[in-house]
Amino acid sequence: MSFIWDWINNTRPPLIAPELVSNLRDAKRVVVLTGAGISAESGVPTFREAQTGIWAEYNPEELATPYAFEKNPWRVWEWYTWRREMIEKKDPNDGHYALTEMQRRLLDQNAQFTLITQNIDGLHKMAGSKDVLELHGNIFRSRCTDLDCDEIVEYKDLKPTETPPPRCHKCNGMLRPDVVWFGEALPLDDLHKAMAASQKCDLFFSIGTSTLIQPAASLPIMALDADAVVVEINPIETLITKRVTYPIQGKAGNILPKLVAGTWD
Ligand code: APR
Question: Which of 38, 223, 226, 245 would give a disulfide with 204, using CB separation of 3.0 to 4.6 Å?
Answer without folding.
Answer: 223
